[in-house]
Design brief:
There is one protein chain. The protein is α/β, with parallel strands linked by helices and 369 residues long. Helices cover 39% and strands 18% of the residues. It has 3 domains: 104 residues, HypD, alpha/beta domain 1 (Rossmann fold, 3-Layer(aba) Sandwich); 154 residues, Rossmann fold; 43 residues, no CATH class. The strands form 2 sheets. The chain has a 6-stranded mixed sheet, with helices on both faces. A 5-stranded parallel sheet has the order 2-1-7-8-9. Helix 2 packs parallel to helix 12 and helix 7 runs parallel beside helix 8.
Length: 369
């Protein structure tokens, strides 16, 4: 096991930056690499890697890798409607989800109906504890996430079904990473040279789901961890692929990611969930990019159980350009609201709310070099 100190060693970082700079000069043109994952965005800015890479001729741009950010307002508003419109209901979700602003306000600031409440939880399994301790109430878990958290959500649903917990349901906002990448590379309005693939998603899905990007579209990519050296190894790999003209999916996170991913987690997902078309903020409706409960678990589907009508259209609030940030069209400071009308204390969109949101990261670490 490599120590954290080694993965943050300033001498190693400096050596990698020099090597990246040399390879970039060999390429002869500036390079734009999309860090797909919001955790990569946070780590790049927290450790001051952005200016170093920019000086080496490499621009890092954010992608759609923040599940709180890409979830359209309609899902949040459906959760708010449940909280307002039904008595004796517990709405459980992750903390960032409660603060997302919509035209109906946020979950955090919504006055619930009599006997109802919103509860912040840290894992899907905690929602079952709420079910068991509140037998007379409906418990709805507003479940959001990518492949990293989806297996635990699926396992929670399977457990609820096995225990016949009829007062438990999930408002599903579950998304898969490869389909939006296809949408991005198929688009003509986003210029990228390669992709830094998310480490924790890749722990689940492995290397294979990204291969179409290199094979069919000619874009290089690398799976990377989240420490500074991890990220720079990924960037170096991408530049080497560009220089050699041989795009592939390189795995620079072999201490955690196996080529085939986590087979057990994949089986749990396949048992409980099935693909569905889904709308992503900034990218619109993408075929088979979401997951919904299979028919045998329909009694635990909050959308069906309560007859919710969720508009599939994306819905950035007026002036907010979170959607453009998520597809790499602009950087957060390019939004006219950034740092002025939109701050962490008074966010106008989810990109300034989530811990992994590009706008919050840029705001928090804007002085970091």
């Amino acid at each position: 096991m490599i120590s954290t100190d080694r993965l943050r060693d300033k001498n190693v970082i400096a050596a990698l930056i020099r090597e990246i700079s040399d390879i970039r000069r060999s390429i002869g043109t500036a390079c734009r690499i999309m860090e797909v994952c919001g955790t990569h965005t946070m780590s790049i800015h927290r450790h001051g890697l952005g200016p170093m890479l920019e000086a080496a001729g490499v621009e890092m741009i954010s992608g759609p890798g923040c599940p709180v950010c890409i979830t359209p307002d309609a899902f949040h508003e459906a959760a708010i409607d449940l909280l307002i419109g039904r008595s004796d209901l517990v709405l459980a979700t992750f903390g960032d989800m409660t603060r997302v602003p919509t035209s109906k306000g946020s979950i955090q600031k919504t006055p619930p109906a009599r006997g109802s409440a919103a509860r912040i939880i840290y894992s899907p399994d905690e929602s079952l504890a709420l079910v068991r301790s509140n037998p007379g109430k409906e418990v709805v878990f507003f479940g959001v996430g990518f492949e990293t958290t989806i297996p635990s959500i699926a396992l929670t649903v399977r457990t609820a079904a096995a225990e016949k917990l009829r007062n438990f349901s999930v408002l599903s906002a579950m998304w898969t990473i490869p389909p939006p990448l296809r949408a991005i590379v198929s688009s003509r309005d986003v210029r990228v040279s390669g992709f830094l693939y998310p480490g924790h998603v890749s722990v689940i899905i492995g290397e294979t789901p990204y291969r179409f990007i290199a094979r069919d579209f000619g874009y290089p990519g690398a799976i990377a961890g989240f420490e500074p050296v991890d990220i720079l190894l990924g960037v170096r790999s991408i530049l080497k692929q560009i220089d050699a003209g041989q795009p592939e999916v390189a795995n620079e996170y072999t201490r955690a990611v196996r080529p085939g991913g986590n087979i057990i987690a994949q089986k749990i997902m396949a048992e409980v969930l099935e693909p569905a078309d889904a709308c992503w903020r900034g990218l619109g409706v993408i075929p088979a990019s979401g997951l919904k409960l299979k028919e045998e678990f329909a009694r635990h589907d909050a959308e069906r159980k309560f007859g919710l009508r969720i508009d599939s259209r994306e819905s950035d609030r007026l002036g907010c350009r979170c959607g453009d940030v998520l597809r790499g069209v602009i950087s957060p400071p390019d939004c006219p609201l950034f740092g002025a009308a939109c701050t962490p204390e008074a966010p106008r969109g989810p990109c300034m709310v989530s811990f992994e949101g590009a706008c919050l990261v840029h705001f928090k670490y804007r002085e970091r070099t």
